[in-house]
Amino acid sequence: MGRRTGADRRRFTRVSQTIPVTCVPRVSDQAVEARALNFSAGGVLFVSPLPLESGVDVDVELGLDGPDGNLCFPGRIVRVRNMSDNAHEVAIEFAGGDAGDQRALLDYIERHAGTHLHDPTPPLTA
């Protein structure tokens, strides 16, 4: 079997919604404030104004609207793509976290089913 690429590798439905993201690398206390490009129950993709290093463990706070508020997750930077001197696309994979925050994120994603979702499994065609 060949290596899966792109959306085929994704295990979770992604929401394309610009929400506030705060990322704090555990090797420093310098918080990076950014806006998400998309997120799922498994991680978040955002553009950082500061360069970050792949493989670094981080704490991430997602600023969701409505009753869910801010949700916090531990994670690891799995990919960084430098777009310019002050724009760096950063992909973070969540690594567990508080069960209540995980449930709230799943509920948020379920409630926002519609135009903001990117389902990793394309519909079957006849």
Description:
This protein is mainly beta and 126 residues long. The chain has one domain: predicted glycosyltransferase like domains (Thrombin, subunit H), CATH 2.40.10. The chain is built from one helix and eight strands; from the N terminus they run E-E-E-E-E-E-E-H-E. The strands form two sheets. The chain has a six-stranded antiparallel barrel with strand order 2-3-4-7-6-5. Strands 1-8 form a two-stranded antiparallel sheet. Strand 6 and strand 7 form a beta hairpin.
List the SSEs and their pairings.
Elements: E1 14-15, E2 20-25, E3 32-39, E4 43-48, E5 57-63, E6 70-84, E7 87-94, H1 99-111, E8 117-118
Antiparallel strand pairs: 1-8, 2-3, 2-5, 3-4, 4-7, 5-6, 6-7
In short:
This protein has 126 residues and is mainly β. It is built from one helix and eight strands. The chain is globular, with a radius of gyration of 15 Å.
Q: What are the salient characteristics of this protein?
A:
126 residues; disordered C terminus; mainly beta; disordered N terminus; Thrombin, subunit H
